[in-house]
Amino acid sequence: MKLVGISGALIGRKTSKVVHEVLQAAKTFDPDLQTELLDLSEFEVEFVKGTPLSYYNDDTNKVVSAILSADFLVIGTPVYQASITGVLKNLFDHLPIDAFKSKVTGMVVTGGTDKHYLVMDYQLKPILSYLKGVIPVGNVFVQNEQFDEDNEIKDADVNSRIQKLAEEMILLQRGIQQLK
Ligand SMILES: Cc1cc2nc3c(=O)[nH]c(=O)nc-3n(C[C@H](O)[C@H](O)[C@H](O)COP(=O)(O)O)c2cc1C
Fold it and tell me: Relative to the CA of 116, which ligand 1 atom is closest?
């Protein structure tokens, strides 16, 4: 199985760090798992303009193909203005409406404080559901004070949630594969 992580941040490194940690935890739980991190700061994904995908640049096609070829995904975003980032929403707008059908879609959100932790449930989750993703019960929210100055996660509870999310995603996706 292939697990693809998406980091929907262009400015900082916290979101990609947490998504990376989920991928690492998943690999530890299932060493046969293939993983790939799509850090959107490393790609020039074009704005959606209503043309077929073949009219967009290579990066846009590469990112969309990697998502569609994944068995399951973990999707991370920082909170921006009480919502998900524009780049992540733009990427979702490129996807067909059954992009996440039969795929577990885990959620990771970072924020300046915990005031906006419900962005995960009220803004990210409805989009993943609309695209037919199977959303695990567990998720990971990390606020800035839970990172140290080296961008390492210093909070044991966050690390435990990362492990649990990775394990739940794998077990759920294995169940889905058996039903296929
Ligand atoms: C443009 C912008 C808007 C932000 N808006 C919020 C916000 O509404 N609520 C919040 O808790 N944090 C907000 N933040 C803080 C980020 O969510 C937080 O620093 C996050 O950890 C950044 O993740 P990154 O390092 O992956 O970029 C904002 C940051 C930026 C740059």
Answer: 11
CB 127 within 8 A of CB 94: no
φ/ψ of 179, rounded to 5, equals -80, -20
The pLDDT of residue 180 is above 90: no
* 34-89 pLDDT, tens digit each: 999 999 999 999 999 999 999 999 999 999 999 999 999 999 999 999 999 999 99
Cβ–Cβ < 8 Å for 4, 173? no
Q: How many CA atoms lie within 13 A of 166 on its CB side?
A: 25
Provide the edge-to-edge strand list for the sheet that holds 2-7. 34-39, 2-7, 72-78, 105-111, 140-143
Q: Does any ligand 1 atom lie closer than 6 A to the CB of residue 111?
A: yes
Of 132, 138, 136, 131, nearest to 161 by C-alpha is: 138
Contacts of 28 (CB under 8 A, 6+ apart): 166
| pTM tops 0.90, yes or no | yes
